[in-house]
Amino acid sequence: MRAPRSRGASGKLPVSRASSAAGSALRSRASCASRSMRSASFIVAEHINPGANSLLRSAPGVHAPFDRFVEALGPRGSGVRLAGLCDAAEVGYVRRGLERAGLGASLTPADTEALGFFVCDADLEDELIRAAGTAAVVRLLDAQAELASFRSFQKQPAQQGRDDHAQLRRFMGTRSGRKIRYGALLIDALDLDRVPRPLDKVLAHVRG
User: Quick check: is 68 in a domain?
Assistant: First the structure.
């Protein structure tokens, strides 16, 4: 069973987004600092998790929005169920933000997951490439007429000695819009039983 195709995302990158729909559509409030994370989260959520309440996203450079949304939506605000994803580099900040919002003290990794917040290693693109497998990602590049560009990229001095996984992850960040496009395409091509653990767990948490 395949996840459905993205409904698309355009315009400038928002630091927050509210989304609601009737029936089987996802109801959520989301702080989305990464367009690729936003796209992947909502594509999978719309397919397998229609009852979600809140998804929060934190990434480098957007600390204030994360804190603001936890305060607004958490126990000191509207009191809705919160769940979130963060990059590995941001886990300390996320824990401190949760603590400041009254969700615990001296939170351990297990505590953070119990609260519904899960860490991507190292980020969502890394998780998606690992889940799909490098061979599948290379085939996807070929289908998008970007395989020649990737092969040229692999020949650059900075890429020598790096494995295919690392090169693919870096390649996705070399052009504006490429991460969001491939985030959506990878989710679209991914069997639901291969959804990366952090994304699977966060959606399971908000599904309750």
Answer: yes
Please return the burial class of 155, using the count of CB atoms within 10 Å of its CB with bins 0-12, 13-18 and 19+. Answer: exposed
> In the prediction, which pLDDT does 140 show?
95
Cis amide leading into 122 (omega within 30): yes
The domain of 72 spans 17-122+195-207
Residues 143 and 89 in one domain: no
Side chain identity at residue 108, one-letter code: T
**Which candidate, 71, 74, 61, 55, places its Cα nearest to that of 16?**
55
Separation CA 125–CA 169 (nearest Å): 6
Is residue 187 assigned to a domain?
Answer: no
pLDDT of residue 37: 43
Residues of the chain with pLDDT under 50: 1-54, 57-63
Using an 8 Å Cβ cutoff, are 54 and 83 in contact? Answer: yes
Give yes or no: residues 200 and 97 share one domain.
Answer: yes
pLDDT of 127: 92
Q: Report the number of distinct structural domains present in the chain.
A: 2
Q: Are residues 65 and 141 in the same domain?
A: no
Distances (CA, A) of 146 to 125, 166, 178: 17, 17, 11
**Whole-structure pTM value:** 0.66
Domain assignment of residue 53, yes or no: yes
